[in-house]
Amino acid sequence: MMNGFSTGEEDSRGPTDQICCLIDNSERCNKLAGNASYSKRIQKTVTQRRLNLSIDSSAKHIYICDFHKMIIQCARTKRRRKDSEDDSNETDTDVPEVDLFQLGVNTLRRYKRHYKVSARPGLNKAQLADTLMKHFKTIQVKEKEVVTFFIYTVKTNSNKLDQKNGVNNDAT
Known about the structure:
This protein is mostly helical and about 170 residues long. It has helices spanning about 40-50, 65-90, 105-115, 125-140, 145-155, 160-165, and strands at about 20-25, 25-30, 35, 55, 65. A hairpin with a 2-residue loop joins strand 1 (about 20-25) and strand 2 (about 25-30).
């Protein structure tokens, strides 16, 4: 290890015996570290949301526990909701937040290909999810039409995906 960052060799076995590298309210966290690392992006979120978290300078790694990962993700989601309204001049505050980061990389790539979203090659999952989230927020939806079509689909027991996969709903 060099300057508290792993050289890559340690990464292959993961942070199985390490505790979280964060200091929470002036106290070192003693929870088991997960596979999430305290990156510059996470550090930016912590600073912007004024979370009382910092990395312990004596830690020999940058892995954080699942508890702190969840706190940071929740803070990021709250920030997006607030900022998205301010940035895009939307007045509808009931727009649900969709976390594309929960999807797999292959699903994100299919989304990118389907909608022909331009993005530079070699993006990691987080960067790809962020890029696609910007695109996702631009999609206009005619709510009345969608709800009407959904009700029609349910009432007629028809689903294009079921038909495509060879599932016959009439057999029930």
